[in-house]
Amino acid sequence: MDEPRLAADLYRTVLRIRRAEERIRDLYAAGRMPGFIHLSLGQEGVAGGVGAALRPDDFVTSTHRGHGHYLAKGGSLRRLIAELYGKATGCCRGKGGSMHIADVAAGYLGANGVLTAGLPLACGVGLSAKLRRTDQVCVAFFGDGAANRGPFHEAVNLAAVWRLPVVFVCENNGWASTTAFAAATAGGSIVARASGYGIPGLTVDGNDALAVHGATAAAVTRARAGDGPSLLEARTIRWQGHFEGDPQGYRDKTEVAEGRRSDPLVRLADRLRALGIWDERWAKETEEATLAELDEAVAFAEASPDPLPGDALGDLFVRPIGD
Amino acid sequence: MPELTYGDALNAALREEMARDERVYLIGEDIGAGVPFGVTKGLREAFGAERVLDAPISEAAIVGSAVGAAMTGMRPVVDMHFADFVTCAMDEVVNQLAKSRYMFGGQCGFPLTLRMPYGIGKSAGGHHSNSVEAWFLNTPGLKLCLPSTPADAKGLLKTAIRDDDPVLVFEQRSLYRVTGPVPEGEHLIPLGRADVKRPGRDVTVIATARMVQVALEAADALAAEGIAIEVVDPRSLVPLDVETLAASVARTHRVVIVEEGPLTGGVGGHLAWVVMEAAFDELDAPLARVAAADVPVPFAPILEAAVSPQVSGIVAAVRRTLGLAA
Q: Does residue B64 belong to the interface with chain A, where contact is any CB pair within 8 Å?
């Protein structure tokens, strides 16, 4: 795809995630959604760039901060919002919630409430593609904090030794929940760990969606060709707290203010201007279309039925006990 | 009907299911060489290294990858090497495998078989001897079976592999060399069907896996004094054949529940409740349980025997249930 078209596509995707996350933030604050919410505001460039490098039949395993990954993988906005409301029309029929969004048909194999859990899963998805003789690829998103759990090392080693078609994408937002990156992570970077397993590692500016796309596309091409996994470290900034309602006493207020100067959406707009194809009318229409889709999704969720209490006993087994 | 060992019966089940369905593959530590119990021997030669995957010593990656493969069209059979090591993949079994279908709202199945070589045998010590089935009985989303004979081993493992849901197959490792008649070819035992291993009128003894063999020895000892116990093997704990258990209790009116794992929080407590719910009016005596002591499994043979259920313990429990001196 040529750069102007790609940049415009990425702008649309990043804008869609941005507006969705802002609306979710407001709805959650207004008490419309139960549970915990972890937003990806500020990190949308990573989701957008990675998503645009994948085919519809590729796969993603995600994290607790996964709304953006889902939308960028071709997920349904109305089924996402409905799931956040706990409605029967949600993508998990109200059994998952924000931390467990999944849409197998879209190749989105689950956000995950357990950090690092998606990495071993992604190895198996890659192995499955290999055994089924397809050229599908699986991206495993994880945060910098998750890179300190054992399954990170087990999964990267396994993917490397078996040359599995997996791309490990670390979203390093500088915070493992409330613990600063440097306080918890030895070696200064996540990407340095790639060399320990003999696989390509690349650091990319996570707020530059085009750069993320380029790095991911190269890693995906390599994986598809049977040349094995790669590790990308996308440096980015979490604008919100770890979870919505997090008072963030551990964090200097200037960090986010400075981070906002590297807004992935603004940077895409700047790039479109530099390419000479920024069009105010197009931007306005895109904004309006995004908000209209969002309004419709929220209305759909609000109007959707709750699950029935008895539904809580279903979906455990394909062949239920007693059948 | 040919006589096979329990291990060879499991091997036959794997061989037949791999030949039948190319989505079936094996993954685990040292399985290409058939180590440590010989169950997978010869399968790499028969089906190739791509379908008999010798994995790094990475239990989380072994089980986690199998979960990912199961949700994208494969039917993995995972060898846990020793069931004790499942602790290194507990998130993958409990949070991912058991829950994902439910948490996804039923979007896909997870047809994964987890082979769990478990239990006491030959002084393996506290990290290689545990009976861990109770942990998973308390985890909704998993089916559990525990074969006690070579024929059951083959029939249950074949069924597990064909099941569209996760099934844990607990193979008591002292049984691997026990021989018995095993039907050739298609031999499937449905989950949720108990088997009366020995009929008897006086006391129902419920036991699984190796404890069935110990209970049968106890039955011989008790027969010498005119007491006939009925040994009932549930064969699977999830699903559980309550009907067969209740029917046996309706004949004998007395129950002893035997298990190899520790008493507290054990499977037997659950089975006791199930029997009470289903057949309280049939009971003429309080239920009795025989289980391991609430300590880790010790090393020295004399200590190992001291903490684990023995024939003498079952005999004493049966006599007590009958109101006789233990």
A: yes
Q: Is the pTM of this model over 0.95?
A: yes
Token digits of residue A23: 């609306």
| Rounded CA separation A188/A147 (Å) | 12
Asked if residue A180 has pLDDT above 80, the reply is yes
Residue of B nearest to A86 (CA): B105
Judge if the upstream peptide bond of residue A229 is cis by omega within 30 degrees of 0.
no
Of the candidates A91, A114, A161, which has its C-beta nearest B91's C-beta?
A114
State how far the Cα of B289 lies from the Cα of A13, in Å rounded to an integer.
62
Q: What distance in Å separates the CA atoms of residue B34 and residue B81, rounded to the nearest whole number?
A: 10
Which residues from chain A sit within 8 angstroms of residue B108, using beta carbons? Answer: 104
Of B74, B95, B108, the CB nearest to A128: B74
Beta carbons within 10 angstroms of residue A62's beta carbon: 28
Contact A120 B163 (CB under 8 A): no
| φ/ψ of residue A286, rounded to 5 | -65, -45
A129 contacts in B (CB within 8 Å)? 72
Name the amino acid, one letter, at A126.
G
Tell me the average confidence (pLDDT) per consecutive run of 10 residues in chain B, 326 residues long.
97 98 98 93 97 98 98 98 97 98 98 98 94 98 98 98 98 97 97 98 98 98 97 98 98 98 98 98 98 98 97 98 90
